[in-house]
Amino acid sequence: MSKSILVTGGAGFIAHHVIEHILNNTDWTIVSLDRLDFSGNLNRLQEVVGGRKDSNRVKIVHHDLKAPLNSQIVSAIGDINYIAHLAAGSHVDRSIDYPMEFVMDNVVGTANILEYAKSIDSLDKFVYFSTDEVFGPAPGDVKYKENDRYNSTNPYSASKAGAEELVVAFENTYRMPNIITHTMNVFGERQHPEKFIPMCINNILNNNKIWIHGNKEKTKAGSRHYIHAKDVASALLFLLNNSTPSIPDKTGIKCPKYNIVGAEEIDNLSLAKFIAKVLNKELKYEIIDFHSSRPGHDLRYALDGNKMMKLGWMPSKVFDTLEQTIKWTVDNKRWLQS
Which residue segments constitute the domains of the chain, with CATH numbers given? Predict the structure, then answer.
């Protein structure tokens, strides 16, 4: 019997890649739950679902998770085996200006989807997508493991950490089959043009200067582990298809957590130079002390991806998927329009 999955925030950037990956690699039915704000764009789903012979496998339900799921929404969703909770406010700058908006979206929204999920008898797994930013900046060569301490440096990351604790609490209290993932700096086709990679592509194409986030001395660019959204989708399906037992570690933690990490760490200047090289254009840039001028932003984030690798999942080579994304974006410039 075919399975069914509910993807929250389905018209969002990462989630629409998840939906495409599930369509291509399973026979499952998919429900996309979305409120369609500035982050959600149905044109993403239209491009990956429209025209497919099996497009009827995807159902779209409109709902804002700041409100509980009422009986009509639950009926529209139907029977569900898996939930991938990706819906979230994710703009750090906006969270600094409007912190309560992120508490409502990320904490209250997660509480409402968990409250719905705990009533599903057929639920096999609930996956909450969190972020590397809950750990805070990674000094030196530190790479955070799944159960390391948290140190949120902005309201966005704090709201994601708060939602994580709800996911843990619902597993501990209600014995739900919950999983938490951390990922960072996801890129790919149809990403919002304000994000770093599409922003670089757009500015380089238009011969504009790029501002590179660096240290106080302006001698070192910030660095991240970049990963393509298709790899994130692949990791999710890997976790759904494989056993992830809730086995307490020596501290008693039961809720499984997994870091979904790109294959290599890349500094932002090297990334911009690579984009310029692929575009065969000159890179105009300036390193700025972004951390000091913009509180809540950090020079370096880093996660340890060994746990997923030991399970048998490996990410793609970053520069291969990045080159594909750059060339796709050049051919589809409408996605660079804000």
Answer: 4-186+226-260 (3.40.50.720), 188-224+263-301+318-336 (3.90.25.10)
